[in-house]
Amino acid sequence: MQINNASDHIQEILNKWEQIDDEIWAKIICMELNRRVAKAYARAAVVTINGSSIGFDGYRVGLRGFNNPKRDEATKTAQEAISDL
User: Fold this and answer.
1) Which residues face 47 on adjacent strands?
2) Which InterPro entries does the entry mention (predicted)?
């Protein structure tokens, strides 16, 4: 899904505000080259972002865990440089 700018993301959250569970700490949006490739709602107060391929498990966001058919070589190279610890 392509959303044009940050205000579109904010509006999406505001539209769902009353439906969002009170235990949600944050909405995580993973972007690549102005394209949203994933979103998740975090219930944990602390979330680790790393280069693993887990996607999102509630506590960790693995940046290589989201599919993007339009991913370019520079992004792949950057992802490989990020630790997966």
Assistant:
1) none
2) SMAD-like_dom_sf, SMAD_dom_Dwarfin-type, SMAD_FHA_dom_sf
pLDDT tens by residue, 33-78: 888 899 999 999 999 999 999 999 999 999 999 999 999 999 999 9
Q: Helix, strand, coil proportions of the chain in percent (round to 5)?
A: 30, 25, 45
Beta-strand relationship, 26-32 and 35-42: antiparallel
What's the CA gap between 85 and 68, in Å, rounded? 22
Q: Could you tell me the residue ranges of all domains in the chain?
A: 29-81
Average pLDDT for residues 3-21, to the nearest whole number?
82
Report the DSSP beta bridge partners of residue 49: 61
SS3 71: coil
Q: Look up the pTM and report it.
A: 0.73
CA–CA dist 43, 26 (Å, integer): 7
